[in-house]
Write a structure and sequence with these properties.
The chain has two domains: 2-159, Ribosomal Protein S5, domain 2 (2-Layer Sandwich); 168-286, 2-Layer Sandwich (Alpha-Beta Plaits), CATH 3.30.70. The two termini are 26 Å apart. The protein has ten helices and eleven strands. Strands 1, 2, 3, 4, 5, 6 and 8 form a seven-stranded mixed beta sheet that branches. A four-stranded antiparallel beta sheet has the order 9-10-7-11, covered by helices on one side. α2 packs parallel to α3 and α2 (68-80) packs antiparallel against α4 (125-132). Helix content is 34%, strand content 26%.
Length: 288
């Protein structure tokens, strides 16, 4: 039995560019963002078996056909082309589902990397792309992990060789049905995106120069206005986080989780105790 952790991610910067020619060619608007990982993770357990892939998931919400872990394993097996390969996988979920934290994508990346080791197989870059493309571009980031700048359609991954100070974070996921990422993109107003990319460069330079004292000043998400417009209920969460001492609130990915950042472990812990009275889906964590 092999145990692996699949960590959540957080976009510290997320910019979408109104390049229609790029979208017409690729189906995506070009993006630029900076990711880090959180000390919040799912756990996966892998055990060898012959011929078949089986998955059990402790949250009971996802069938094998829908789950990124099963799909990643099946796609890898098909790409390798050996029908005798098999594995028994147990997935224990801690990362909220459909929360903008990349839980499914992280699970998929860990599955691919672990099974390549277990099955003693190697694949080409092109084969890896064929596996990841049906799963979504976030999997490209999780194959690398750490602090990275991502560009293009989400598959251009560039590590940032700097230091990100530990940031204490409270995550609140509202009890609302999260729209798909494609729905979010369909609501983009082209005249309101890609206007603040200088903030992304400033954040990158501060990380590279280890100048992180006021780093939250450079956090940004182009989806913020869209989500605020269609989900005004989130204003209450923002206000409650701010009132509890959060120095910055940020939408995670394409939503709907809101991250509140705190100056110290003590202030985050105190805020968590206060906020958990009113919020069921709340997590206290930190960057890694």
């Amino acid at each position: 039995m092999i145990e692996k952790n699949a960590y959540a991610k957080l976009n510290l910067n997320l910019h979408v560019f109104p390049d229609l020619s790029f979208k017409n060619d690729t189906g995506y608007y070009p993006v630029r963002f900076i990711n880090c990982e959180l000390d919040l993770h799912d756990s996966l357990f892998f055990e060898s078996q012959n011929d078949k892939i089986t998955l059990s998931c402790d949250n009971g919400e996802l069938s094998n056909a829908e789950n990124f872990v099963y799909r990643a394993a099946q796609l890898l097996k098909e790409e390798i082309g050996d029908s005798h390969l098999g594995v028994k996988i147990v997935l224990k979920k801690r990362i909220p589902v459909k929360a903008g934290l990349g839980g499914g994508s992280s699970d998929a990346a860990v599955t691919i990397k672990t099974l390549l080791e277990m099955w003693k197989s190697t694949i080409s870059t092109e084969q890896l792309k064929r596996i990841i493309n049906p799963l979504g571009s976030d999997v490209f980031y999780f194959m690398r992990g750490g602090i990275c700048e991502i560009a293009g359609k989400g598959d251009d991954i560039n590590p940032i060789l700097g230091i990100l100070q530990r940031l204490w974070v409270i995550l609140i996921t509202p009890s609302l049905s999260k729209p798909s990422t494609s729905w979010m993109y369909s609501k983009i107003e082209l005249d309101k995106i890609g206007k603040h990319v200088n903030i992304c460069e400033q954040l990158k330079q501060n990380i590279l120069n280890k100048n992180t004292s006021n780093i939250t000043n450079y956090f940004h998400n182009d989806f913020e206005d869209i989500i605020s417009k269609h989900y005004p209920e989130l204003d209450t969460i923002n206000n409650d986080l701010s009132a509890s001492g959060s120095v910055k609130q940020l939408i995670a990915g394409s939503g709907l989780t809101i991250a509140g950042f705190y100056r110290s472990k003590e202030s985050a812990e105190e805020a968590f105790k206060t906020l958990k009275v009113n919020y069921k889906n709340i997590i206290w964590t930190h960057t890694i």
